[in-house]
Amino acid sequence: MKTSEKVGPFVSCTKQMTKDWAVERQGRLTYSVFKRIIGGENIEIIDRILKIDPEILKSRGISREPEARRVLSNLLCSQIDERGITIAEDQRLAASVDGFIPDLNAIVEIKQPEKFRTHIPYGDLEQMIWNMWVTQTRVCYYFVYMNEKQHFLAKVHFNKKIWNKMYQQALVILSKRHDIPLPPLPGNGRYIQTGFQLSDNTPCDIQKRRSSATSCDEISV
């Protein structure tokens, strides 16, 4: 494929939370690392992107994610695909999302907190907007899952204003670690074209639904 033809994000088929997946993350900035640096941690953490935190592997969210994904798939009446890391077109930013919904051109963010909640913390909103930009999708389904009878679903749209602020901060971080070599793109992946276009007037609308609700109430933030 010619360079001029490489348009859109690159999606790997490597299973998440594996050594190969960790290598593919090396040198690329994901939201989780970005947030820790912005939160005050030493920028040297960017050199350790390839390492997997054992606590992440043991986390409740990872262990029960397939169950939550199945329930959400039934709620949306849509197939949810699992993929590996998604690498932005510039190859410097990346995201490992909880699922892709091909027929809705959307992604999924699954949360399984210790206590049930029906709101979206701002950090989670930022994470979804980051992941939407990397994957070039306009919508993310935010799913707080406790069990099959207790869950919260929200439909979140991309917001350019929030993204621009994060992107400028990300550029500063990357400029201080420009010497980190990027690994080659995974051989088991492919480029995808989504037709995604940013709009200055893109709203940040959130449609919310509790497990017991019959319709969604739309709000703006």
What is the makeup of the main sheet? 6 strands, mixed
**Spatial sequence of strands, sheet with the most strands:** 4-5-6-7-9-10
- Domains, number: 1
Shape: globular
Identify the CATH architecture.
Answer: Alpha-Beta Complex
Provide the β-strand percentage band: 15-25%
Low-confidence stretches: 49-61, 195-206, 212-221
CATH fold name, please? Lambda Exonuclease, Chain A
Number of strands: 10
Rounded mean pLDDT is 76
Number of continuous helical runs: 7
Radius of gyration: 17 Å
Q: Based on the structure, what is the oligomeric state of the protein chains? A: single chain
Question: How do the SSEs run, as a string of H and E?
Answer: EHHHHHEEEEHEEHEEE
Category by helix and strand content: alpha+beta
Distance between termini?
42 Å
- Give the C-level CATH assignment: Alpha Beta
Proportion in helices? 25-40%
Description:
There is one protein chain. This protein is of the alpha+beta class and 221 residues long. The chain has one domain: Lambda Exonuclease, Chain A (Alpha-Beta Complex). The chain has seven helices and ten strands. It has a six-stranded mixed sheet with strand order 4-5-6-7-9-10, sandwiched between helices. Strand 5 (106-111), helix 6 and strand 6 form a beta-alpha-beta unit. Helix 6 (122-135) packs across helix 7 (160-175). The termini are far apart. The model is unreliable at 49-61, 195-206 and 212-221 (pLDDT under 50).
